[in-house]
Amino acid sequence: MVAAVKAAIGYDYEEIEEKISRVPRNGTDGQILITEVVTGVIKRKKHAKKSDALLKFLLLNRLPEYFSDTKKVEISKKVIEIKSNSADEIRLFAGKLLDIIEVDFVETENETDSTNPRENSSC
């Protein structure tokens, strides 16, 4: 748990690099032996970046009473009644609108029949 929190918020650390040199020397039987010798140590201070995703995960799972990723939807009976009344009103309005459109359509159709030049002309 401590490591997860540390990784979530970021941390500083020290990186150590050893410089190694190869040094030739003569062996007892006349052969050249190469030995590796540490010639220097380099220390670097670095910073591990924070992890937003890990921080979100920890907060959601360890402190759910303070942090929540869910959205609550409340439905009340009053809202449902209003919607059902609205649906009836919409149907009533649409019915009246259709009646008006049919009357206008029939009137314009009758007018075009009486003024249609093709029917009145004799060829």
The number of distinct structural domains comes to 2
- Measured as a percent range, the helix fraction is 40-55%
Q: What distance separates the N and C termini?
A: 99 Å
Please tell me how large the radius of gyration is. 44 Å
Describe the strand arrangement of the main beta sheet, using strand numbers.
Answer: 1-2
Give start-end ranges of low-pLDDT stretches: 119-123
Strand content: 25-35%
Largest sheet: 2 strands, antiparallel
Structure classification: alpha+beta
H/E topology pattern: HEEHHH
Number of beta strands = 2
Question: Average pLDDT across residues?
Answer: 79
- Number of distinct helices: 4
Molecular shape: elongated
What do these coordinates show?
This protein is an alpha+beta fold. It folds into two domains: 1-70, no CATH class; 73-115. Helices cover 50% and strands 27% of the residues. It is built from four helices and two strands. It has a two-stranded antiparallel sheet with strand order 1-2. A hairpin with a 5-residue loop joins strand 1 (11-26) and strand 2 (32-48). Helix 1 crosses helix 2. The protein starts with a helix and ends with a helix. The model is unreliable at 119-123 (pLDDT under 50).
Question: What's the layout of helices and strands?
Answer:
Blueprint: H1 2-9, E1 11-26, E2 32-48, H2 52-62, H3 77-114, H4 117-120
Antiparallel strand pairs: 1-2
Helix pairs in contact: 1-2
Q: Quick recap of the structure?
A:
With 123 residues, the protein is of the alpha+beta class.
